[in-house]
């Protein structure tokens, strides 16, 4: 159980960590893109302001008076913006470059003046490739040669190298000779915002993970506890002696409760089948023990009697009877064992029931005469079924001999064979002792007899009426079912019984559910 709990917890932790990772990455990318857009808008606004300031200076000129936007004060430096425009542009806080139509930088803001000349040149030369609608990035380094400038950027805490987001805005023709303006802003804040976000996520994530894992571990343990409890209860029950016990079930109706109910049902079936097996073994041993005891007594009696005396002969004859009886029992047990195993020689061929029933009737007449009974067969209709003639004969004879055995002298036993549309019914009705309603559900159980004491031969006493083993009806019912039919009984105590075998007529036979196709395999006859 510990392993399921651990597995659940680790799976949960891995899923949570993965989710957090995806969530963090999405947040990180989103945050970066949002800051980038802000910087872009900011740089564009700067460029716009620079152009408007330039336009403002131009509009200030009196009508007809030409206003210069640039002038050459230093022939080495080349043209620069006029002082008025310079003063206005100096108010802008960010990186601004004003470039004339010749590609000459005529103004560089304070930020721009802190850059190395290489960096400035790189930006200027890349500017023509920059379309007015796009933004570009420029890696820059700040001036380290001029100590004054160096002190200036160091004092402001700016790094030596940086990356600028730059935009270009073209000046219209009224602003000639100004060509375009480049405005830029450091992308540092964007990176800083992302780094700060990552930092806070990293600070919180372990805590969230740990708390979640602890909660998951606790929940998994809580969920699996009933399972563990069920396992230990099951262990106690299935030790072989406690099958009467059942699992304790919560009335929650959840999966555990349903599993418990299923297991309880299974334990119930196990208990029934174990009980049946135990009873069967006990009954079989008991049934064998009685004739063995009788046999032993008889053999001892024969040995102690004078050689060839009539007493010795009687003892030996009784011993032989017991041996025959034991052989019958073993034969019945073997038949049932083969049925259970699905290994029996049941032939399937088209057979006429009429001659079989007539034959059984003739046997019944002989037996009935000896028992002082009237045997009748008012109906005998022709019927053909698919099956095993020997087994069906055994089935009919079982019912008839039972009827004769359990009907006192003077009674009647009636046999009928009624052919219906799809089925044929063989009925044996007697006016015998009958079966109590409470006993009816058990009469097909193995070794079941209504009155054991009457059926059993008591040691040392001669009981003329020899009871069976209580296996005949179990075998009969099995034969009926193996033919896709049924064996039913209706009986009232002291009023008599009616046993009815119903079999499907040929062409109507449906394979019985219990008898798998292998059950019809012809027995190899090895035993
Ligand atoms: P047995 O060999 O003991 O007759 P069966 O399985 O044939 O075994 O029958 C089981 C029990 O059912 C019998 O012991 C008897 O009590 C009862 N029984 C069977 N047939 C009849 C019947 N025709 N009338 C009354 N009781 C019957």
Automatic annotation (TrEMBL):
InterPro entries: HAMP_dom, HATPase_C_sf, HATPase_dom, His_kinase_dom, HisK_dim/P_dom, HisK_dim/P_sf, Sig_transdc_His_kin-like_C, TCS_sensor_his_kinase. Residues 283-507 form the Histidine kinase domain. GO terms for cellular component: plasma membrane. The chain crosses the membrane at residues 12-30, 197-220. It is found in: Membrane. SUPFAM superfamilies: ATPase domain of HSP90 chaperone/DNA topoisomerase II/histidine kinase, Homodimeric domain of signal transducing histidine kinase. The keyword Transferase applies. Residues 221-275 form the HAMP domain. This is histidine kinase. It comes from Gemmatirosa kalamazoonensis.
């Amino acid at each position: 159980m510990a392993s399921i709990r651990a597995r659940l917890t680790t799976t949960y932790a891995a899923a949570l960590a993965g989710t957090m990772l995806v969530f963090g990455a999405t947040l990180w990318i989103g945050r970066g893109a949002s800051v980038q857009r802000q910087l872009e808008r900011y740089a564009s606004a700067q460029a716009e302001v620079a152009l408007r300031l330039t336009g403002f200076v131009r509009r200030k000129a009196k009508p007809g008076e030409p206003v210069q936007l640039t002038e050459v004060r230093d022939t080495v430096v080349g043209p620069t913006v006029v002082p008025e425009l310079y003063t206005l542009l100096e108010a802008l806080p960010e990186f601004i470059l004003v470039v004339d139509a010749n590609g000459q930088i005529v103004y560089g803001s304070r930020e721009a003046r802190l850059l190395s000349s290489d960096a400035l040149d790189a930006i200027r030369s890349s500017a023509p490739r920059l379309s007015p609608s796009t933004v570009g990035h420029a890696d820059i380094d700040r001036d380290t040669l001029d100590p004054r400038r160096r002190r200036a950027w160091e004092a402001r805490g700016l790094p030596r190298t940086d990356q600028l987001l730059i935009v270009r805005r073209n000046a219209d023709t009224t602003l000639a000779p100004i060509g375009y303006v480049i405005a830029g802003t450091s992308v540092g804040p964007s990176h800083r915002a992302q780094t700060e976000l990552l930092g806070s996520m990293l600070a919180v994530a372990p805590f969230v993970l740990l708390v979640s894992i602890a909660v998951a571990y606790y929940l998994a343990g809580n969920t699996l506890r009933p399972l563990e409890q069920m396992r230990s209860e099951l262990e106690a029950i299935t030790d072989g002696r406690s099958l009467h016990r059942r699992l304790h079930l919560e009335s929650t109706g959840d999966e555990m409760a349903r599993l418990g109910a299923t297991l309880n049902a299974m334990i119930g079936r196990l208990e029934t089948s174990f009980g049946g097996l135990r009873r069967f073994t006990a009954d079989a041993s008991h049934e064998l023990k009685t004739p063995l005891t009788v046999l032993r007594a008889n053999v001892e009696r024969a040995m102690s009697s004078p050689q060839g005396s009539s007493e010795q002969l009687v003892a030996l004859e009784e011993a032989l009877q017991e041996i025959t009886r034991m052989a019958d029992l073993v034969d019945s047990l073997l038949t049932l064992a083969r049925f259970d195993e699905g290994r029996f020689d049941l032939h399937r061929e088209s057979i006429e029931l009429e001659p079989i029933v007539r034959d059984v009737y003739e046997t019944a007449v002989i037996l009935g005469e000896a028992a002082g009974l009237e045997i009748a067969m008012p109906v005998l209709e022709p019927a053909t079924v698919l099956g095993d003639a020997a087994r069906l004969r055994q089935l009919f004879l079982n019912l008839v001999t039972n009827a004769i055995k359990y009907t006192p002298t003077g009674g009647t036993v009636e046999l009928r064979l009624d052919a219906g549309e799809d089925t044929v019914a063989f009925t044996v009705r007697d006016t015998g002792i009958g079966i109590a309603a409470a006993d009816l559900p058990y009469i097909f159980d193995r070794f079941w007899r209504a009155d054991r004491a009457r059926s059993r031969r008591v040691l040392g006493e001669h009981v003329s009426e020899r009871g069976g083993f209580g296996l005949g009806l179990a075998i009969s019912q099995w034969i009926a079912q193996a033919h896709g039919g049924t064996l039913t009984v209706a009986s009232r105590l002291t009023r008599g019984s009616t046993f009815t075998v119903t079999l499907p007529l040929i062409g109507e036979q449906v394979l019985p559910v219990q008898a798998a196709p292998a059950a019809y395999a012809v027995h190899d006859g090895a035993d």
